Amino acid sequence: MSYNLLKGKKGIIFGALDENSIAWKVAERAHEEGAQIVLTNAPIAMRMGGIKDLAAKTGSEIIPADATSMEDLENLVEKSMEILGGKIDFVLHSIGMSVNVRKGRHYTDSKYDFTTKGWDVSAVSFHKTMNVLYNKQAMNEWGSIVALTYMAAQRVFPDYNDMADNKAYLESVARSFGYFFGRDHKVRVNTISQSPTPTTAGQGVKGFDGFIAYAEKMSPLGNATALECADYTISLFSDLTKKVTLQNLFHDGGFSNMGVSDAVMEKFTEE
């Protein structure tokens, strides 16, 4: 269902890999709500996913960019403004990668050049993106920037590994940069802390299926889906949330405020 929430708005969406990606669903929903978008992903990810299909479906152009490269990001922002015909109203950062996780290294035995690479891709890339947007004055007033995160930034999920630290850093960057972006350009910056979601990124985490089932039982409303996350993201890109900024917003069916649920207790209670 469309509400025309983004009619006439222009945006950049990072990280749409395939149709399970939250970013993919955000792109589809933004298009349905009347936005014009530019899609971007790392050159290597461009070869893996079907981003060309998404571009065709949403009438978007694709600009490959390594989000850790200032040069690539500057090119992305300049070209996006040319393509879209003006400044940008919304940006989605949906990028996360841990080399330690990929290589099967335990958290207590990190390889630190892997740590640094994952941190650069997952967290510093958000700072770099905002740096370029801020210094090029590329955002319209009352624009909105959102990054996707996960509650392992605050609480321990043992197998989430160093991605937990990357997400904590990402959330801090949203607050710190968000202050200056709000003060100087009336742009809001928030993170959405989403339920565990069966995306390509999510499925890289060990024991993921068990964890999704646990979160489902713990949350009074059940886990939030990728499409539901996209809907929430659209609301943050819309003019209905103009004064929401510097927030880490839990979108998780209530999981983040639960201690225990009846459904979980049942598993541990002898009749």
UniProtKB/TrEMBL annotation:
InterPro entries: Enoyl-ACP_Rdtase_NADH, NAD(P)-bd_dom_sf, SDR_fam
EC class: oxidoreductase
EC numbers for this chain: 1.3.1.9
UniProt entry keywords in alphabetical sequence: Fatty acid biosynthesis, Fatty acid metabolism, Lipid biosynthesis, Lipid metabolism, NAD, Oxidoreductase
Source organism superkingdom: Bacteria
Pathways involved: Lipid metabolism; fatty acid biosynthesis
Catalytically driven reaction(s): a 2,3-saturated acyl-[ACP] + NAD(+) = a (2E)-enoyl-[ACP] + NADH + H(+)
Family: Belongs to the short-chain dehydrogenases/reductases (SDR) family. FabI subfamily.
Name of the protein in its database record: Enoyl-[acyl-carrier-protein] reductase [NADH]
Species whose genome carries this gene: Pseudotenacibaculum haliotis
